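#structure-requests
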Amino acid sequence: MSAAEPRPEVVDAIVAVLKGADPEGLPPGATPEEKQAAKDRYLTEFAAERMHRDRQTQAWELLLTRSYDEPPTWRTLFDDLSPDAAEELGELYDALPAGAQEEYARRFGAPSTV
């Protein structure tokens, strides 16, 4: 490893601080390359988490098509889906809660893109 390559443990420590860890844990002497690598990784992870949350929100909007008097089961939620909504849920399969994934797979099979 050349001297200009970021040290993974330093990048990990910087990312941890960016996520809220105690700055006391930062190793001394982080290079500009390490700081940039940490910033890039943090922003990439943040964007990925945001995209996943947006996909989860979209999935819930498809699942909750109406209000229910009692908390619905996964079976009930899927019984109420339109064919178009079920197809869209297949595209959001990775963002579904585990119970919804199980019900989707039971009814339609796990999507091949998973």
